[in-house]
# Entry
Amino acid sequence: MKKTPHSLKFGFLSLVILCWSFLSCSSTDGIDNYFTFNLEKNQFIINVTPTTAIGEEFVVTVPTMLDSVDLAKNGTSLSLLQSVKLTKLVLTSGDASFPMTSFDTVRLAAIADSLTAQLLALYSGASDAVSLTNADFAAYVKKTSSKFSIAFKLNKAPTQPVSITGEYTLVFSAKPQE
# Structure
């Protein structure tokens, strides 16, 4: 079959577009070398006493417990973190007579100072369920003064002091150390 001048022009144009696409991609810096990893060993403990008023909100803070050793074991550092997200939160009462449904609500937030906070999770005693916000709080974690803020309201007071354990998993996206 004899090629017509029109089909030659189309083939040449296709070749030019393909080469241009290839060359334009090669001039970029390439794909970012981010990687992700989980830290699952994290936990915090809050104590609830019989004098805690029902229906009033109480706020306690706990450190974010981010260990630079854990980051180093994963080949990165605090300055190289790109994102941090809470992907799991399990709240457990240390006293069977004071189940988690004794709480009306529990809110977990990342705080950097008294003016800025990022809601990370909400526990509802009515549904006995935790909802996660999927919020990225890397900016909070990078500040050494950052903490978790736990705000809670009770619908029933304990008869004796009770420890509530929060076990959580954080997922990190980071650049590797060079």
